[in-house]
Amino acid sequence: MGCWGMGITQSDEYCEIYSRFMDDYNEGKEVCEITSAILSEYHKDFDDNDGVMHDVYFALAKAEWMCCAQSDLVLNRVKEIIESGANITFYRELEADEKDLKIRQKNLEKFWNSLQTPRSKPRQRRIDPLDRIVPLPPLEVGECYRYKFGDGYRVFVVLGFNKAQGWRDMMRCGIFMKTYSASELKTVDFLREPLHSIACYLGEDILAPSSIKKIANVSVPEGKYTTSLSIFEIKLGNKKDFKAEFKTSMVATLSQLFFSVDSTESKVTFSYSDIKCGDLYAYNINGQYRIFMLLHTRTMVVVPAIYCYAWKKTFAEIPTIDELKNEYVIPLGWFVEQTFPNRDKLTYIGNDRFADALKDMDPSKLSEKWKLATLALAKEANLIEDYPIELCEKLCDTIQRSIELTSSKVVSDEDKGEN
């Protein structure tokens, strides 16, 4: 038996019995059945007066109380143990000092008093999450479904499915911003309607088939548009999303999402006219500085975005550009204007040409471990994180690899031209 304090729950025996009791309770067994089984097992090795049995009875008493099913057998035995001083004697034999024994006595009295007031309702049995798994409903990509909301209807569209090894299948849905009347639903063009959000849903988070009705189909292109979705930080959704109060929408309609994706370099910029590719900034974190570099801009679903690399190390003083070349970096992803860091926390360091080597270079081509950063949405909070060293590389090594990859591509293109 292991004890690590004077609290009622501070023993291995108590924790083991209580946990075992609740596991059996969650599986649907009756309280009296669980108590009887545990006592029968322990009585094979221990006499009822053995000190080990004290914590067994204490745990059973607490568990029965939680389930609103207290038994006279357990309750009376707990009373005997406490009132007789047997538990204090047992702890004294374990070489607890007098100060600790006084604490133990107070805890025993408090515990006994708590058992005298029945709970208002029993603890709910916790269902194994695997028992709640619901398969995805048989909906198809491009189908639009309406469901009742307030005095009108909302609509969601099925955009695709996420299937990955080790993960449950999920359905990617977009929920439209507006609430429509029955007559509006007959004429609305959903390709031009503003979206409130896009998220991935498990089967149990999709609305029940009985509460939805198919009202339209849209053509969802494969491939290119899906790469742009991550700029909206595709998240795991839940059933509450469909009934949430919407205040603002995404900046894209389905038409923009599908047909206005431009993944090539663009001259679009933020409204911050002073931000340029190759700029380096120091971000103030309580007197320490995290350095990040902006590389190139793109239009992601009509949203101007700019790619960012950050340095692993934080600096007590703002370093020079030359000092940064031998430090470790990691690609963070795309800043959109809404997620760009607070300008009050930034110090401009300068603009350097070593950014040219990385400009427009896909991070996943530089390193397999950087694949997830290729289309990630960067936030100000990301600049505060501690980046794992195994995900970082020295900037000088990264630049060299980029130069080598670019050179090999040029040679390859020249060979093709000669052929």
Structure in words:
Helix content is 30%, strand content 22%. The chain is built from 11 helices and 13 strands. The protein has 3 domains: 104 residues, no CATH class; 121 residues, no CATH class; 132 residues, no CATH class. Helix 1 runs parallel beside helix 3 and helix 4 packs antiparallel against helix 6. About 2% of the residues have low confidence. The longest helix is centred in the last third of the chain and has 24 residues. By secondary structure, it is an alpha+beta fold. The strands form 2 sheets. Strands 7, 8, 9, 10, 11, 12 and 13 form a 7-stranded antiparallel sheet that branches. The radius of gyration is 31 Å and the shape is flat.
Rg is 31 Å
Low-confidence runs: 260-268
Task: Supply the number of helical segments.
Answer: 11
Number of strands: 13
What fraction of residues sit in β-strands?
15-25%
Q: Tell me, briefly, the overall form.
A: flat
Fraction of helical residues: 25-40%
Please identify the structural class as seen in this structure.
alpha+beta
Largest sheet composition: 7 strands, antiparallel
Number of domains: 3
H and E string: HHHHHHEEEEEHEHEEEEHEEHEH
Mean pLDDT: 84
The N- to C-terminal Cα distance equals 80 Å
